[in-house]
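User: Please predict the structure of the protein below. I'd like the answer in structure-token form so I can feed it into my own downstream comparison script.

Assistant: Understood. Taking the following sequence of 124 residues as input:
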Amino acid sequence: VLCTLYPLCSSLQDNYFIHRQCLPLIEKSAKNGIAVLMFFVPDSGQFQGCARLKSIGKLNRGLALASLEWLSRSRVSSRDAQHLSNSWDGGRRLYVARDGQAIDFSSGKELLALFRVSPSSLVK
């Protein structure tokens, strides 16, 4: 799942507020296996980390507090990921995806590789 970090959320923390519209998809991913969140900061033009969802707290004012296990806090420029498109979003490039957008397995796997995270390391 692709999440967008806006300027007021400039640091990557272990807890992150998730917008209500993203929750159903994230919860479904978690029930079906592992939910991995990819973070993109539009103003920087960079992906700025990826994390495994550990838990989601109660919804409050349209936001839910998610507990994360960071897989990578490294940065990947949109230029390095410009070849990645999302077949589940009409072939749009990942760096122009909407907040909470599901990412197809192939593109998600390639983006993880850019973060130097092996998909096999996700299985515990």
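That's the full token string. The CA atoms of residues 85 and 91 lie 5 Å apart.
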